[in-house]
Design a protein that fits this description.
alpha+beta; 4-stranded antiparallel sheet; 8 strands; 17% helix; flat
Length: 198
């Protein structure tokens, strides 16, 4: 083999080795990386479960019966009758000594229907607290401004199961967005149950 043939042969071997080494050291990359999530266009956000009925986010409706428990033991069934969100005139006429509602506020009136569930006797107005939470988030109760009305919840005495009764609660509430507020009913040591304002 002459020098020219030897050089050509060596060049061919070197070229072949370079191709083999390049092939062994390369990484294939085909298309874009495959996402492990859902297909394109599909939402990866799971729908939020609806809030429990009776919470501020999902208040119970007027007339809906809810159970008020204490330490996991059912105590009362409670529902609210259609309220009057501006009972100021009726409150004033009901008792001449009732305080006038402050500026920017009116008296609201709601009837609370109760049924005693627990065996031990209890008094509704002692066991239960009824308040109004405005659209702005402020809380208002019967003790803020005194107003005496006929058929008040405070007129009810001790009740044994399965006694039922009803009593009126009067609360001074802000005029602004009154219908967007909520009523709350709670036991002495329990979380409040929310009802729509109307």
């Amino acid at each position: 083999m002459n020098a020219r043939s030897r050089t050509a042969a060596l060049t061919g071997v070197a070229l072949a080795l370079a191709i083999v080494m390049t092939a062994c050291g390369s990484t294939a990359k085909v298309g874009a990386p495959t996402a492990s999530g859902p297909a394109a266009g599909a939402s990866s956000v799971k729908p939020k479960p609806a809030a429990e009925v009776g919470t501020r986010a999902n208040p119970a409706t007027i007339g809906q019966v809810v159970t008020i428990s204490q330490s996991g033991v059912p105590q009362w069934e409670v529902s609210l009758s259609a309220p009057n969100l501006d009972a100021t005139a009726a409150v004033a006429a009901g008792n001449q000594f009732n305080e006038a509602a402050p500026a920017g506020m009116v008296y609201a009136q709601v009837t609370v229907n109760v049924k005693r569930l627990a065996e031990k006797a209890a008094t509704p107005w002692i066991d239960l607290s009824v308040k109004f939470v405005s659209a702005a988030g402020t809380t208002h109760s019967t003790s803020d401004h005194m107003a005496v009305v006929a058929g008040s919840l405070t007129d009810l005495g001790e009740m044994y199961a399965p006694a039922t009764a009803a009593g009126v609660v009067v609360v001074a509430i802000p005029v602004a967005d009154a219908a967007a507020g909520t009523w709350t009913v709670s036991s002495m040591f329990g979380d409040p149950t929310f009802f729509k304002a109307v």
